[in-house]
Prior knowledge:
The protein is α+β, with helices and mostly antiparallel strands. Among the domains are: 2-167, 2-Layer Sandwich (Beta-Lactamase), CATH 3.30.450; 340-492, Heat Shock Protein 90 (2-Layer Sandwich), CATH 3.30.565.10. The protein is rod-shaped, with a radius of gyration of 61 Å. The longest helix has 54 residues, at 228-281. It has helices at 2-8, 11-63, 69-80, 101-114, 164-212, 228-281, 283-297, 304-335, 348-358, 360-365, 384-401, 461-472, and strands spanning 83-87, 93-96, 120-124, 128-135, 140-148, 154-161, 344-347, 369-371, 379-382, 410-417, 420-428, 476-480, 484-492.
Amino acid sequence: xxxxxxxMKSVRFKLFFTMCIVITIIVLCLILANNVVLETFxxxxxxxxxxxxxxxxxxxxxxxxxxNIETELKRIAxxxxxxxxxxxxxxxxxxxxxxxxxxxxxxxxxxxxxxQEKDNIIYQDSNIKIxxxxxxxxxxxxxxxxxxxxxxYSLYIRIPVVPxxxxxxxxxxxxxxxxxxxxxISAFIASFVSRKFTEPILQLNDIANKMARLDFSxxxxxxxxxxxxxxxxxxxxxxxxxxxxxxxQLRENNVELEKDIEEKSKIDDMRKQFISxxxxxxxxxxxxxxxxxxxxxxxxxxxxxxxxxxxxxxxDESNKMDRLVKQLLELMKLEYGxxxxxxxxxxxxxxxxxxxxxxxxxxxxxxxxxxxxAKNPIYVYADEFYxxxxxxxxxxxxxxxxxxxxxxxxxxxKIEENQKVRLSMFNTGKNIAEEDLKRxxxxxxxxxxxxxxxxxxxxxxxxxxxxxMNNYQNHYGVTNKENGVEFYFELDRVFLIKP
Length: 499
């Protein structure tokens, strides 16, 4: 039902319905005019015909234009379906196309003398009189012209009149039939024409609906017809292109704005986190510096060696604070994407050997054996500075937690090559508690509460590792082994082609 109502509202249905209504009105007007005007027009036409014949016959006798008037009169009567009767002033019969016409004229004379009111005079002047005569006895009607010719002869012309009601009825039926056929033909034409008109309109409507949903993919098909719809289609295509550009620009601006807002939010979060971390971690060193500084001022210890010890503690704590602040700033930049990486092809084997060499003093002090047998170069694509920090943090962390197990105190480093390069670092010692395996990657988290400040650790080394590896989107982690702990990370491998 709703579909039918929608079709009734369409332009195609309205155009078809309008054409049918117009044709029906025209047919009804023709039928009405046929009923009202046809009889009058019919009598007017017949009257003009007999008048013209009268004048022609008058000219024949007046100018004697033909030698055989009788033949000409018969031809006129035959061509026009007339009866003609002519007599002289002495009532002498000279011509008649119907032998019974004379007796008819006698009846007409008696009608004129008895009841002229029954005659319908249609036309009359000084020479002729035309009237309609209804012969009820014979059920016929005719027009009768009675006139005087210029030569004194009397002329009578009789023309039968078809019953006009029958003609009107026949004409009306013909009009109804023609009107019905016309409506059917018009329905087909209206459907074809309306489709031609409505198809581009529907296409434009579909494009407009898509534009309302910010879909500018569909365009109007421009034709060679230079009409209003084609011009409208061009305008809509132009508007669609401009809107698409404007909305695209707005989206780009919106993305930039969102980035700016996100960037501002990150900076704000980074600032808050930095202040929180610094304020938390600097409490102890500041308190120590303050305490030892007050001791120096108040001369708690008068001997030179004690004052030197106080000064060394203050200097050591200051250096730790400086190192902590720098590491915090570096960590913040890594976590919030503010650090730019200068990636290149680096030899991870050579880099690891260099880290071991720099930490050789710590290894000797702790009597730790290192096993790392890789010699051939293995290249990865990364920033050498940050990857060195990852390896150093792993290595120093292994040194601090390395303990003797079954007569061995060692650190074992392995590099495996597959689609990625995986570096793993194992140290003998205690396992990490299961609940601490994920916590150790957080800043300032120390799984071993017994560690003291002499170790020099800040608690953000593994947090730096996490931030660096997250920037490379590569795997990293820690696993408890039978006699110790193993840390690992992966990097993108580079296959160099030898010349």
